[in-house]
Amino acid sequence: MIQRIQSVWLLLASAAVFLTIKFPFYSGRDQAEGLFKTVSGISTITMMILTAALGTCILVTIFLFRQRKIQLRLTIVCIIAEGLLLYLYIRQAEQFSEGNLGLWAILHPVILVLLILALRGIYKDAKLIKESNRIR
């Protein structure tokens, strides 16, 4: 399981998702109240649920290494969920009058890249197994 490179990519992506719960994506002054606030994975209930579900889904995907089709589909679902989560972060950050991206905002593009690398590895494994079955 862990000797497959896509398992490493998925594990790193899951760790990065759970780090986004703690560290801020954006910080600045709120337009409505003028108070200094930060946007992180627990800013709203929707973002918190989606972040936790995404991290859990990625962890579950690691252990589906014998069922490559399901693993491939779940990885695609995780990529879509990460895109949706990134959209929610940007929409939440637009509510600020002034502010800047946090250092940890780089985690979201990294998560997308890691999931795409895992998807590529899973696809290569499925293709290799299909070719080896054809040779028999």
Protein architecture, described:
With 136 residues, this protein is mostly helical. It has one domain. It is 67% helix and 11% strand. The chain is built from 4 helices and 3 strands. A hairpin with a 5-residue loop joins β1 and β2. α3 packs antiparallel against α4. It is elongated. The chain starts with a helix and ends with a helix. The model has no long low-confidence stretch (mean pLDDT 88).
Descriptors for this entry?
three-stranded antiparallel beta sheet, 136 residues, mainly alpha, 4 helices, elongated
Helices and strands in order, then pairings?
Blueprint: H1 5-22, E1 26-30, E2 36-39, H2 45-62, H3 68-93, E3 96-101, H4 107-135
Antiparallel strand pairs: 1-2, 1-3
Helix pairs in contact: 1-2, 1-4, 2-3, 3-4
User: What is the count of structural domains?
Assistant: 1
What is the number of strand segments?
Answer: 3
How much of the residues is beta strand, in percent? Answer: 5-15%
**If you compute it from the alpha carbons, what radius of gyration comes out, rounded to the nearest whole angstrom?**
18 Å
Biggest beta sheet summary: 3 strands, antiparallel
Cα-to-Cα separation, first versus last residue:
24 Å
Residue-averaged pLDDT? 88
Helix count, DSSP H or I runs of 4 or more residues: 4
Helix-strand makeup class: mainly alpha
How much helical structure, as a percent, in the residues? 55-70%
Uncertain segments of ≥5 residues (pLDDT<50)? none
Principal-axes geometry comes out as: elongated
- Topology as H/E string? HEEHHEH
Strand order of the biggest β-sheet? 2-1-3
